[in-house]
Amino acid sequence: MNKRLGFWIAHFNILAVCMVLLGAFGVQLGEQEVPCPLCMLQRMAMLLCALGSAYIILQARSGALTVSDFAAGYGMSILAAVCGACISTRQILIHIVPPDPGYGDPVLGLHLYTWALVVFLVVLIDSGLNLMFVPELVTDHPIEFNWISKTVLGVLGAVMIANVLSVFCQEGFHWILPDDPVRYELFYDLGLFKSP
After folding, report:
1. Which of 49, 91, 109, 141 is a plausible cystine mate for 80, CB 3.0–4.6 Å?
2. Nearest by Cα to 22 from 180, 149, 158, 170
3. Quick one: average pLDDT of 91-98?
4. In the predicted structure, residue 73 carries a pLDDT above the cut 60
5. Which fold has domain 2-189?
6. Using only C-alpha atoms, what is the Rg of the chain?
7. Are 38 and 74 in contact (CB under 8 A)?
8. Domain ranges of the chain
9. What's residue 15's pLDDT?
């Protein structure tokens, strides 16, 4: 089992990122908070972090995972996490000076962009630890790419599609997302709602 642990850690990483993004959707839809462009970039970076783990899972379709498979997958996750951490830090610095209340309502005392920085730091630590222990996690024995793997990748695909649809609804037929969005432009562009 411990020789297949790296394979199952990749599944957990994807599900953890998907749960964070579904929580962001909960705040977006439940609290009626339209995400800003920096928030959307952070979501995209989180999806890219999950794609590193998805790469590892997809490589297991051949039956075994190699050290280079883990290195490539977690390397992708590290690059995405560094980019996401830079974006999160930029947004934190925009809102750090008092009396700026920040963008959106805090969740458990922190704004979503601060939580995003925490997520990116956790991805960096997780990826680094997985790379350190790759020799213990790699196996030459066949790994079964089964319904669990397909389900996890399906959840990731659904979250990716939901993010694309969210951006499209928010942007509508315009080229640029507004800096401080207050509505979903697509519904106004289609005439479903009247502009104030």
Report:
1. 49
2. 158
3. 87
4. yes
5. Bromodomain-like (1.20.1550)
6. 19
7. no
8. 2-189
9. 95
Please, are residues 39 and 175 in contact by the beta-carbon 8 Å criterion? no
Give the whole-angstrom CA distance, residue 6 versus residue 121. 19
CA distance 26 to 129: 31
Residue 140 — pLDDT band, cuts 50, 70, 90? Answer: low
CB–CB of 72/1 below 8 Å? no
Cβ neighbours of residue 114 under 8 Å, at least 6 residues apart? Answer: 88, 92
Residue 85's CB is within 10 A of a number of other CB atoms, namely 20
Integer CA distances (angstroms), 64 to 7, 74, 88, 130, 142, in order: 10, 17, 36, 17, 5
pLDDT band of residue 136 (cuts 50, 70, 90) is: low
Dig out the tokens for 38 from the structure.
Answer: 């920096």
Q: Which amino acid is at 69?
A: D
- What is this structure's pTM? 0.87
> Minimal CA–CA distance to 142: which of 74, 68, 71, 59?
59
Neighbouring CB atoms inside 10 A of 69's CB total: 22
Tokens of 152: 């996890």
Residues 6 or more apart whose Cβ sits within 8 Å of residue 164: none
What's the angle, vertex CA 192, arms to CA 190 and CA 196, rounded to 5? 100
